[in-house]
Structure formats: C-alpha cells, structure tokens
Design brief:
Keywords: DNA-binding, Transcription, Transcription regulation. By secondary structure, the chain is of the alpha/beta class. The chain contains twelve helices and eleven strands.
Length: about 290
C-alpha cells in the first residue's frame, strides 16, 4: 500500500504519468497499474485523465492529503528504528518563521553541519501559522516560531527571548529627535507591518493595543527584508526583531527609535507533533538549546 500511495502522490504532484514514471525510475505502464490498484482498493476513481493533464478529483484530494501524512509517518518510523543503532544522519525537515529562519537559523545549521556532517537539513520558511500547519500535516520534523502560538495537538516549548525595536530611516524626523520619543509621536508615522499569521505582526498588534497606538496609516508587506528596504527608503517605520537588524545598524542604514517606556519582548519556541525524535532531530534541538540567548 505504501508504494501505491507514493506513486499516487508523485502522479498528483507532476500531473503527468510520464514525468512521474521518470522521477520514480519506473515504466509508465507500471505507474498506471499502481494507480489502478489503489483506485480498486479505494472503490472509486481518484484522477481525472485527459490527453493534456491528470488532475485530482474530490476523492483524489482526500486521498492525496492523507497519503502525504501516512508517507511522512512511515518515513519517520523507519528513521526512528534506524537511529537506534546509527549515528546522527539522514534528512531533517526544519520549518521556521521568517525572523528566526532568515537571521538565526543559518548560523545554527552551520554549527550542526560542522559537528554532524551526515545530517541533511531541508529548510522551509513561512509565517508562524504556516509552519504550525505543516507540522500538523507531518510534513516537517520540527518548527521554530516566534511569538505566542497555542495548539493542544502540538508540543510547543519556548527556548529563547527575542527583543524588538522600533526602527526608522536615519533621515526620519523621529531619528532626529533628542532623547526618548513620546509614544504619541509614533502614531503620526506610517507603519509598515507583516501579514496576519506572522509572529512579527502579532507583536505589532499587541504593542498597538498595549500602548494605545493608532497609526495614521499602515502598509502590509510579506517579508522582513522587504520591510527593512522600505524603512531604509523612508516609506515609514516598523517594529522588527533585534536579530533582523544587526547588519543594518552596523551599516547605519537603520536607526532605533527609543520610545519612552516602550519595551517589546517575545519568545522563540520549538514546535513538534510527536515526542519521538530521530537522532538528527535530537542533536538539532540540543544545538538550539546550547545557543539560546
């Protein structure tokens, strides 16, 4: 059954029997036989076939979704058994929200590769909500998210603090002010924020509520790097992780606005769907703990 599901998933993703057969190193008739056998087992057709395409029907979408999860669980089971006798090695699927994934994770991966060169990490970057959903779907081994996230089906463990700062272009009027800036001045600016579902957006919304800030205008951008570029260009101000702005502060292209009584902190957390860990995942989690700030 697992082979039938693997072939079905590949056909569904390639939308073509020939391309699926090529990637699976099988003949096209063999691929067709696997699909037909699976459809007989399911008692219904799963694919819409034509000369131009192969597409999932409604039943196929259900089977595809669960097949991905089943194959992921099967792979993890094999990895856990292999790990009983082998060194830390093999694939490790890591998901991370943007701030941690783009500015912290590369340094941790470099340390892991130096110490455990047989581990092969695959990185997926997304917002906090997206990463959590991939963990639930068993498509990632571990996720690292920012801010508060709660789901009783997941094992969520805070491991590090993250300080955040309001940043502006050095030419911004707030950057020219002496001493601490009154919080009331912040709402006179255009704010550049992340999309809903992002941990950074959650922190911004929490700050607006806590300090009763009502910005005159908000622009929503889909990545931290884009926000930094926009702030540097003088388009507005933003709240960003201190991890994300090290380079810009050293180059003098961004300026931290010291607002009176404004202190913003949050947590980075690991997210797992199971307490069982491969050796590769175990050593990665150990490296995270060793390097927490």
């Amino acid at each position: 059954m697992d082979q039938q599901l693997a072939v079905f998933v590949k056909v569904a993703e390639k939308q073509n029997f020939s391309r699926a057969a090529e990637e699976l190193h099988m003949t096209q008739p063999a691929v067709s036989q696997y699909i037909q056998a699976l459809e007989r087992t399911m008692g219904t057709t799963l694919l819409e076939r034509s000369n131009k395409y192969v597409r999932l029907n409604k039943a196929g979408e259900i089977v595809y979704h669960h097949a991905k999860e089943i194959l992921g669980l099967y792979s993890r089971m094999n990895d856990l058994i292999d790990d009983l006798t082998n060194k830390a090695s093999g694939p490790l699927s890591i998901g991370a929200s943007y701030t941690f994934g783009e500015y912290v994770l590369p340094h941790l991966i470099a340390k892991m590769q130096k110490k455990y060169p047989l581990v092969s990490p695959k990185i997926t970057i997304g917002n906090t909500k997206e990463i959590a959903e991939l963990i639930l779907a068993k498509q990632l081994d571990v996720g690292i998210v920012e801010g508060h996230y709660d789901n009783k089906r997941l094992l969520i463990e805070p491991f590090a603090n993250d300080s955040m700062s309001v940043v502006a272009s050095p030419q911004n009027r707030l950057a020219q002010m002496d001493g601490e800036v009154p919080i009331s001045e912040l709402e006179k600016e255009t704010w550049i924020v992340r999309e809903n579902g992002s941990g950074t957006r959650e922190a911004v919304d929490k700050m607006f509520s806590q300090y009763r800030i009502s910005p005159k205008k908000c622009l929503e951008f889909g990545s931290t790097q884009l926000i930094k570029e926009a702030v540097e260009a003088g388009l507005g101000i933003s709240l960003l992780s201190d991890w994300a702005i090290h380079k810009e502060l050293s180059l003098g292209t961004l300026h931290i606005i010291k607002a009176k009584d404004l202190i913003i902190k949050r947590k980075f957390s690991t997210v797992l769907s199971s307490p069982f860990q491969t050796k590769a995942l175990k050593v990665f989690l150990e490296i995270i703990q060793e390097n927490q700030n």
